[in-house]
Amino acid sequence: MAVSNTDDHFRNHGFILSEGGWGLSPLYDVNPDIYGEYLSLNVDSDNADIDFELAIEAAKYYGIEKKEAVRQVDLVKGIVRNNWQILAKKYGIGRGEIDRMKVAFKVCEG
């Protein structure tokens, strides 16, 4: 959601079994999409909008309290907002391409 990734189908979600039980795998196969408005999978029963407020409201369905959902959203938004351009430059992506991709990260602004 933070990078407008619209390729979030079931095969791009994984789990890892550890001694403590099953947990989500680290993030993989994520591609910022400048045209991304909707996720492939719904956030709640009928909405796939790329919208952090929707994710916060739907958190209760996943056993996450609203306060914790807000904390996690703020954390993710801050990490993405403060680092994506730095990483892009580090890996040799030019200024023009970075400027073109800014729209994919708009949900993390502010």
In short:
The protein has three helices and two strands. It has helices at 52-58, 66-90, 95-101; strands at residues 15-18, 21-24.
Structural commentary:
With 110 residues, this protein is mainly α. It has one domain. It has a two-stranded antiparallel ribbon. Helix 1 runs antiparallel to helix 2. 13% of the residues are buried. GO terms for molecular function: kinase activity. This is Toxin-antitoxin system, toxin component, HipA family. InterPro entries: HipA-like_C.
The global form is: globular
Q: Give a count of the beta strands, DSSP E runs of length 2 or more.
A: 2
**Low-pLDDT sequence parts:** none
Order of strands, widest sheet: 1-2
How far from one another are the termini? 15 Å
Indicate the mean pLDDT.
94
Fraction in helix: 25-40%
User: Can you summarize the main beta sheet?
Assistant: 2 strands, antiparallel
Whole-number count of domains: 1
Query: What pattern of helices and strands is seen along the backbone?
Result: EEHHH
| Class per helix and strand makeup | mainly alpha
Number of helices: 3
- Percent of residues in β-strands: 5-15%
How much is the radius of gyration in Å? Answer: 15 Å
Write the SSE topology.
Blueprint: E1 15-18, E2 21-24, H1 52-58, H2 66-90, H3 95-101
Antiparallel strand pairs: 1-2
Helix pairs in contact: 1-2
